[in-house]
Amino acid sequence: MKTALITGASRGLGRALARDLARDGWHLVIDARDPTALAAAADDISSGGSSGGTGGNDGGNVRAIAGDVTDPAHRADLVRAVEGGLDLLVNNASTLGPTPMYRLAALPVTDLADTFATNVLAPLALIQDVLPSLRERRGAILNITSDAAVENYETWGGYGSSKAALEQLSNVLAAEEPDVAVWWADPGEMNTDMLRAAGEDADSAPPPEEAAAALRRLVTDRLPSGRYRASALAGAQ
């Protein structure tokens, strides 16, 4: 059985992608900061999104470990949970930074440092920790990015710059690790709490399940390392 580690899986894209992989028979280790929300997500994922799940944090093939990916002790817990071998790491956990979102002229540098800690440094730390297993099993890394990494949206400079850094990190990693598939993917706008917190019209955006279904193709078809957009993947099916 293949094993995936997905961060930020209590809601939105992470939860939807975890549900899809569970249906494909994957063993999952998932994390999020809110233990109550994560337990509910684990129940939903292990039951395939239907009512009447098994309940608890370890229902079916889902193991939930609550914590913050910026915490080295929590990352160590995640690594121990996949000691039997890892086939896929999904770095989905992310933060917008302070909201309402600042224009760059007023963005506190300390807040930007916290954003980079979650969106760039923590993913890299996890990658470093699990790379030996991914190399051995010719596994894959999926880093969730954003169109804000490449577009000049006002007030999105802090978040966008962190995602741009994650994209370049992924780009270099793909060159350095030829035996590991490295994908960095823009899911597009989704109806999520994060988009709503940014002050955008989340209700008119597609559900995260649509992006998850498109990104699943990266895993099932093992597409070449590179940058992908969920909309393009969906259109190519």
Q: How would you explain this protein's 3D organization?
A:
This protein has 237 residues and is of the alpha/beta class. The protein has a single domain (3-236), classed as Rossmann fold (3-Layer(aba) Sandwich). It is built from eight helices and seven strands. The protein has helices spanning 12-23, 35-46, 72-81, 109-136, 157-176, 193-197, 208-221, 230-236, and strands spanning 3-6, 27-32, 62-66, 88-91, 140-144, 181-186, 226-229. A seven-stranded parallel beta sheet has the order 3-2-1-4-5-6-7, sandwiched between helices. Strand 1 (3-6), helix 1 (12-23) and strand 2 (27-32) form a beta-alpha-beta unit. Helix 1 runs parallel beside helix 2, helix 1 crosses helix 7 (208-221) and helix 7 crosses helix 8 (230-236). The chain is globular and about 50 Å long. The protein starts with a strand and ends with a helix. The model is unreliable at 50-59 (pLDDT under 50).
Number of domains: 1
User: Approximately how much helix is present in the residues?
Assistant: 40-55%
Separation, N- and C-terminal Cα atoms: 26 Å
Query: Per CATH, which architecture?
Result: 3-Layer(aba) Sandwich
Total of helices: 8
* Global geometry: globular
Q: Which regions contain 5 or more consecutive residues with pLDDT less than 50?
A: 50-59
Beta-strand level of the residues, as a percent range? 5-15%
Give a short account of the largest sheet. Answer: 7 strands, parallel
Which secondary-structure class do the elements indicate? alpha/beta
Q: Give the overall average pLDDT.
A: 94
Rg, Cα atoms, Å: 17 Å
Strand count? 7
